[in-house]
User: Fold this.
Amino acid sequence: MAQYFLGVDGGQSSTTALVADETGQVLGMGRGGPCNHVSAEEARAKFNAAIGGCVAQALEAAGLSDDTEFEGAVLGFSGGPADKETLVHELFTIRHALVTNDALIALVGATAGAPGVITIAGTGSISYGRNADGKVARVGGWGYVFGDEGGGFDLTRQALRAALRQEEGWGPETMLYSLLLEATGASSANDLLHRCYTPAMPRPKIAALSQVVERAAAAGDLIAGDIMDVAAQQLASLAIAARRMIFADGVPARISYIGGVFRSERIRARFETLVRAQAGNEVAPPRYGPAAGAVIEALRIAGVDAELRGAPEEK
Assistant:
């Protein structure tokens, strides 16, 4: 009988599911809404709808029924696995299951299952690695209060700080001031500051304003350029720290990256330069996205030796 495997990438903005068979051939894909929080009853319902609907789409695309049993399934969530494992088993029948964080599946997708390290810089930031012996390393991922250096939220935070300093007369002038007000319609930097403490400005929306920093830097603003360069330095430091925890000096290590912040050519190029400066590091873009990584890991935990085929490669 054919065996089927499920990989799910559940994030703060969307969910992606892939279904594959025992040969590693991807049969179907589905997409749904966010599913990272499940603490309240309404959130649980949204979680079930996002995951259930997303997997149902993938099964339909694969020509399989909704009650298909999975030999292996890995589901990675940006909010971590807490409170989600029971819900997953209520939704699906799975022989070998792993409910984990999004860092693991992002790493596996980026390296197509090979050892390495990935740095993720979206709203927040984290580095995660695994070596050939299965030893893992995690660096960063402390959240927006104590960490997330180099992530989108932190880029916006640094930009707003610079704008506030200009407005209050104790910092240099920067294009960030006018660009932030233009992007948000705020009357002042102080007005924008107070908006960021309200539900109208959730963290992903604040993080999206980080594009303003790139615009200002591209126009020659020195303050914005410094913010971007520091972000690249911090992200490289996360990657190098994770690498040192699990790879010996001189042992080749593949380091990859993913997330909206790395769409910035300036940050990506500086990150690559800094990481390559450490002996033995190979820097490469991710081969596959996190959902494909989840499928690869699902095959692995079920003991199936198959190379993934038919998955969309990461752009």
